[in-house]
Amino acid sequence: MCGHRPNLSHYGTLSGVNLTDQSPAHQSPQHIDEAALLAGLRAGDQDAYETLVRAYSGRLLAVTRRLLRIEEDARDAVQDAFLSAFRALPTFEEGSLLSTWLHRIAVNAALMKLRTRRRKPEDSIEDLLPKYLENGHREDGHRGNPTKPWQEPTALLERQETRTLVRECIDRLPETYRTVLLLRDIEELDTEETAHLIGISPNAVKIRLHRARQALRTLIDPHFREEQT
Amino acid sequence: MTCRDFIDFLEGYTSGTLSLKEQAIFYFHLSLCQHCARYLNSYQKTMQIGKAVLTPTEDPVPAEVPEDLIKAILAARPKTA
Question: Most CB atoms within 10 A, among A50, A88, B20, B28?
Answer without folding.
Answer: A50
